[in-house]
Amino acid sequence: MRRASGGFGRWTVCAAAAAIALIGAACSSGGGSSSGGTSSPGGGTAGLVPPTASMKPQTSIGAGEGNLNLIAWAGYTQQEWVKPFEQQTGCQVHSVYPNTSDEMVTLMKNGGGGQYDMVSASGDADLRLIYGGDVKPVNVHLIPDWTNLFPAFQSPPFNTINGVHYGVSLQWGPNILMYNTHDFSTPPTSWSVIYDPQYKGKVTVPDNPIQIADAALYLEKTQPSLGITDPYELTQAQFNAAVNLLKQQAPLVKKYWASAAQEINAFQNGDVVVGAGWPYQQSQLSAAHAPVASTIPTQGATGWADSWLLATNAPHPNCAYMWMKYISTPKVQAEQAVSYGETPDNKLACPIMDQLSKGSCALYHANAPASYFNSIALWKTPLAQCDNGQDNCIPYSEWQQAWTTEITNA
Q1: Are 117 and 5 in contact (CB under 8 A)?
Q2: b/e per residue, 213-240, with b = 16+ CB within 10 A?
Q3: Half-sphere exposure (CA, 13 Å, Cβ side) for 194?
Q4: What is the mean pLDDT of residues 329-352?
Q5: Are residues 274 and 345 in the same domain?
Q6: How far apart are CA 226 and CA 219, in angstroms?
Q7: What's the pTM?
Q8: Among residues 202, 242, 207, 243, which one has the least CA distance to residue 221?
Q9: Is residue 214 part of a domain?
Q10: How many domains does the chain have?
Q11: How far is CA 24 from CA 52, 112, 292, in A?
C-alpha cells in the first residue's frame, strides 16, 4: 500500500496462472534495481508477461463520455484542480477513497469491473494490478507532458513492463527519518536510532508490511555479509534477518501509525521522539512550530511513487486520457504536490510550487540533484521470482503474514 492509511486520513485464467503463483496472494510494483534512479523501460520480472500486454492502446482521444470514475488516495482529487478539469472537459469526476493498497486492488478486480476507469496506485500495488490483468496498456504519446516528466519517471519499472506502459507517473516521496530536536542535540545520521533500546517506547514507524524493506535496506548497508542487493528481493535468509530485526524493534515502538495524522499527533504530544515518516508530516509539524526535524540517513531510504493506471474495462476511456493529460501538466502537478506534501514528476512544476507556497520546491526536493533521487529505493512489489529469473525470493504475501503475525504482534 502507498500508505498504511490515506495520507489524509501510496486474469485471464491461463495467462495468469503462473504469475499468480509467483506474485503470491498479494504483491505489487515493478522490477528494476533498488535505487530509485536506475529505472528503465525494461522493467518487470524475467519470463512474466502481463495478460493485457497484447492489447493495443487507443491512438487518439475522442469525445468525453461525461463521467470519470476514479479510485484515488484521499487528497488526490481536490476541487482545486478537479473543478477546472470538469469545466474544461465535461467529464464529471466521481471518486472513492480506499485506505490501503489492498483495498485498491480489491476494487480494481476484473479490470475495474466495468465501473472504475483509473486507480492512483502506489509501487506496492502496481504489479498486482498489471500481472492481474486489471489494467491495460496506455499510449503515453497522447499525454504531451509525458516528455516533461523526469527521465526516471517516464518509463519506470513500477508502471512499465518490457517497454509497455500501463499508466502515467504522478508524484513520489521518500520515507524520511524524523526526530525531536530537543532529544537529539546532534542530528542522527543512521537508521540505527529506531532500533536502539535507549529509545524504548519512543519510536514510531508505519503500520505497513513494506516496512520490511526498510529493515532490509539498513541491513544491506550495515551487514554486507547477508548479500542483500535489493531490499525488495530477499532470499529466505535475508528475509529472516530483516524480520528478526523488526521483531527486536517491536518492544521499542510506541505507535505503528496508520495515518499521517497519527504520527503528527504522536510527535506533537511528545509520545515519540524518533521515527519514520514522510515530508508531509515534517511540513505540518514545522508549520505547527514543533521541535521536529528530518533527514535521509547515510544508508539511504525507501520511498513511494504513485501512478494513474487505466482499468482494463474502463467505461470512460476518453475522459481517462483527458485526466492523464491534465494531471500531468506542470500547474496541476504543482498544485497537488503543495496540497498533499509530495514531489511532482513533471520537472517544470518546481517554480510554480514556489509561487503557490514559498520554499515548497526545496522542501519537497522537486529540484534535488540526481544523487538525492539515487539514494531512494522506490517501493516495488516483492515477487517470488526475482528480476534475474530465479525463484528464490520471498513474495509479498509472506511479507504480509510476517508483519501481522510475527512483527506487530511480537
Answers
A1: no
A2: bbbbbbbbeeeeebebebbbbbbeebbe
A3: 29
A4: 96
A5: no
A6: 8
A7: 0.82
A8: 242
A9: yes
A10: 2
A11: 19, 21, 39
If asked whether residues 164 and 187 sit together in one domain, one would say no
**Do 111 and 190 fall within a single domain?**
no
Q: Which domain holds residue 227?
A: 175-302+388-407
In a domain, 28, yes or no: yes
Residue pair 314/166 in contact by the 8 Å Cβ criterion: no
CA-nearest of 214, 167, 218, 165 to 190 is 218
Which residues lie below 8 Å from residue 287, measured CB to CB, with a gap of 6+?
A: none
The CA distances from residue 202 to 87, 96, 193, 261, 267, in Å, are 49, 35, 11, 17, 9
Q: Hey, what amino acid is at 189?
A: T
Distant-in-sequence contacts of 351-355, Cβ < 8 A, 24+ apart: none
State pLDDT tens for residues 296-337: 999 999 999 999 999 999 999 999 999 999 999 999 999 999
pLDDT value of residue 275: 98
Residue 94: inside a domain:
yes
> In angstroms, rounded to a whole number, what is the distance separating the alpha carbons of residues 246 and 348?
40
Residues 323 and 344 in one domain: yes
pLDDT in tens, 196-218: 999 999 999 999 999 999 999 99
Residues 112, 62 share a domain: yes
Residues 192 and 289 in one domain: yes
Cα separation, 9 vs 2, whole angstroms: 13
Report pLDDT digits (tens) over 261-283. 999 999 999 999 999 999 889 98
Q: Distance between CA atoms of 25 and 164, rounded to whole angstroms?
A: 24
Q: How far apart are CA 89 and CA 84, in angstroms?
A: 9
Could you tell me if residue 382 is inside a domain?
no
Same domain, 116 and 25: yes
Report d(CA 2, CA 186) in Å as an integer: 31
What CATH number did the domain enclosing 194 receive?
A: 3.40.190.10
Predicted local distance difference test score (pLDDT) of residue 19:
37
Q: What is the pLDDT of residues 164-198, one digit of tens each?
A: 999 999 999 999 999 999 999 999 999 999 999 99
The answer on 127 and 222 residing in a single domain is: no
* Residue 93: per-residue pLDDT: 98
Mean of the per-residue pLDDT values of the chain: 88
